[in-house]
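Consider the tokenized backbone below.
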């Protein structure tokens, strides 16, 4: 169990770095709406750390005056319904469809989508996150 706790701690540290970078890049006068998609393994399966990453990001961003996270249940539901995967991560058309569905379900459109890859081995957890402003890969 100590190894799992260490990995959870590593995930939290990585998420804090990511959200710090996000806050530095997107601080503005209006709230940036963020949809946190899934964090998957390199072979495109949902990572066992997916929910931990999503929860940690939602928690950190909720404390910021610059960001509004879109309700995670709605995002997860839309992602599941659409069949979103890492293979679709670079398709602006898929993000347009996700935003259309978000608007229908939650009444909001995302300014930024966040998704990523989580790789683990015995010693470390590596998170590669992608920030997709307006659904355009950057």
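A designed sequence for it:
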């Amino acid at each position: 169990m100590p190894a799992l706790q260490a990995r959870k701690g590593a995930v939290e540290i990585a998420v804090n770095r990511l959200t710090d970078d996000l806050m530095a890049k997107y601080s503005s006068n209006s709230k940036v709406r963020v949809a946190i998609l899934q964090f998957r393994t390199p072979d495109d399966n949902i990572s066992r750390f997916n929910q931990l990453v999503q929860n940690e990001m939602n928690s950190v961003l909720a404390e910021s005056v610059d960001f509004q996270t879109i309700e995670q249940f709605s995002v997860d539901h839309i992602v599941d319904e659409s069949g979103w995967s890492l293979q679709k991560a670079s398709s602006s058309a898929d993000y347009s469809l996700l935003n259309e569905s978000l608007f229908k379900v939650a009444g909001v459109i995302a300014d930024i989508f966040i998704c990523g890859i989580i790789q683990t081995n015995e010693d470390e957890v590596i998170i590669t996150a992608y920030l997709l402003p307006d659904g355009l890969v950057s």
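The mean pLDDT is 83.
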